[in-house]
Amino acid sequence: MIISSAMENSFYSIRMRASSREKHLSGGERLVPRNEISAVVAALTEQGLLAADGQADVVQCRVERIATATLRYGVLPDVSTRAVRNDHEGRLLAVRLLERAGVAAQVAQGAIQLLADGPGPGGTVMRGAVIMDARNGQRLEPDPNRGVRASRMDVTPDCRFKLTRLLQEHDLGHRRVGEALVLAGKVLSASGLVAELCWSDDPNYTTGYVAAPAFGYRRISALKPSGDPRGGRVFFVESGTSIADLVVYLEETPVLFVDHGTISPAQQWESDDA
Ligand code: WAQ
Ligand code: MG
């Protein structure tokens, strides 16, 4: 949800990218006030250096001032978690959630297969996300090698303080959770956006999520088998959505979240649940 309001103070976009021989290893994006720039650049640089067991040979951080007038404000999606027994159950649940959000069942299944096979060229991981027509499954991202990167989104310092504490109370203090929640928040705020599907390319991180306006950010404890290095993101859109406008919004429009939503305790999922 996006709310418009006037807020003073300059914010700066900080984007980090770590790579090894042209291969993307890790990225990070923050929007911070002037006084946090140095600390955040240091933290993101360290994150890039640590990525993939320290394989990075280039870590770049780019700092850009954001024109205050372009800033949009929003509230983060609600967070809920379903524990599943294995990735088969997890993928079944993901299909059901995507259908509920308005994605055709076959399209949802196809998207899961795409991420399972590796959506990049030759079964590799993409740096960004796939954009997919929710009705017919057509891939719409302008560059299918790279995908689209959601960028220039963050929580305000005040919201970060509250969100960090709340996530920790629910054992969700892992950096990935907050990052993915903010990314999903921006993605869901885009016009024409129906749902997002995501799981990590980190072989040891099996939890993924389906996000949609109707149920927020729903975590699923297993969307892939442990040890699998493939992962990715699919942004599902309504047919007829302007992809050019969507890409500009996701990559360039700065969005700051001023508050979080609710966080519900994890629930065991049974396949006969609605
Ligand atoms: N924009 C678009 N796609 C991205 C971005 C981005 N900024 N960052 C990563 N991706 C794509 C890219 O294809 C990656 O391979 C893939 O997503 C996964 O990225 O609640 O850690 O950073 O427990 O490995 C979700 C669950 C974790 C967190 C997701 O993703 C939770 C995660 P990763
Ligand atoms: Mg990441």
Q: What would you say this structure looks like, in words?
A:
It is a single chain. It is built from six helices and 14 strands. It has helices at residues 37-54, 87-101, 105-117, 157-169, 175-188, 243-252, and strands at 2-3, 11-20, 23-33, 58-66, 72-75, 79-83, 130-133, 153-155, 193-199, 208-212, 216-220, 232-237, 255-259, 267-268. Helix 2 crosses helix 3 (105-117). It is of the alpha/beta class and 274 residues long. The strands form three sheets. Strands 7-12-9-10-11-6-14 form a seven-stranded mixed sheet, sandwiched between helices. Strands 1-5-13-8 form a four-stranded mixed sheet. A three-stranded antiparallel sheet has the order 3-2-4, covered by helices on one side. The site of pimeloyl-AMP has 26 residues, from helix 5, strand 10 and strand 12. Pimeloyl-AMP binds next to helix 5, strand 10 and strand 12.
Q: SSE layout and pairings?
A:
Elements: E1 2-3, E2 11-20, E3 23-33, H1 37-54, E4 58-66, E5 72-75, E6 79-83, H2 87-101, H3 105-117, E7 130-133, E8 153-155, H4 157-169, H5 175-188, E9 193-199, E10 208-212, E11 216-220, E12 232-237, H6 243-252, E13 255-259, E14 267-268
Parallel strand pairs: 5-13, 6-11, 6-14, 7-12, 8-13
Antiparallel strand pairs: 1-5, 2-3, 2-4, 9-10, 9-12, 10-11
Helix pairs in contact: 2-3
The protein binds pimeloyl-AMP and magnesium ion (MG).
Pimeloyl-AMP (WAQ) binds next to helix 5, strand 10 and strand 12.
